[in-house]
Amino acid sequence: MKGYKKLMDFVALVEKAVLAATMILILVLTVGNVFSRKVIHQSWSFTEELVVAIFVLITLLGAALSAREGGLVGLNLVTERLPKSCKKPVIILITLFSVAFMGILFYYGMDKVLAQLANQKRTFVLNWPEWIFWSFVPIGSVCMVLHFIEYCVDECAKTNAAEKNDMKKEDK
Fold first, then answer.
1. What is the DSSP secondary-structure string of 24-57?
2. What is d(CA 151, CA 90) in angstroms, rounded to the nearest whole number?
3. Alpha carbon of 157 to those of 74, 89, 154: distances in Å?
4. Could you read off the pLDDT of 69-114 as tens digits, one per residue?
5. Count H helices, E strands: the chain?
6. pTM of the entire predicted model
7. Where are the alpha helices (DSSP H) in the chain?
8. How far apart are alpha carbons 150 and 77 in whole angstroms?
9. CB distance 144 to 67 below 8 Å
10. Which of 56, 138, 155, 158 is within CB 3.0–4.6 Å of 109 for a Cys-Cys bond?
């Protein structure tokens, strides 16, 4: 269990580093493009392609980190209002549905990546392979699955610990 937690801490650290780097990249590209348009009167046409693609990665990784903390609306909104006895089964059910949805997202994301690889389709401005940008969808899906499972394991462990404490109090 401790090994799993260390692995997940490392995954979260990598995700945070990627998020920080991509946010800085988007900031530099966007500010640079605005400056270029207003001062030099030349637009950086490639920025839109990069920024939109990177936003997909940022959104999915940010949602994954939020899922790790139980910060997604569906996770906390329901479970906090339940009696203790119902909390654990509902958390497991929510996790199963979330993992299933991410599995579907992964499947269709990979389908799109493989189609882009087969077609050798390239982006309009940068002429980069489109599969690179589409790969952000399966990557984000995997990260979300890992963090949904991590959240479920952590919450079930907390629920088990709370139940043991309640039993000890009843015995006294």
1. HHHHHHHHHHHHIIIII----THHHHHHHHHHHH
2. 13
3. 20, 13, 5
4. 888 766 667 777 888 888 889 889 989 999 999 999 999 999 999 9
5. 6, 0
6. 0.85
7. 2-35, 46-68, 73-79, 84-119, 130-134, 136-171
8. 18
9. yes
10. 138
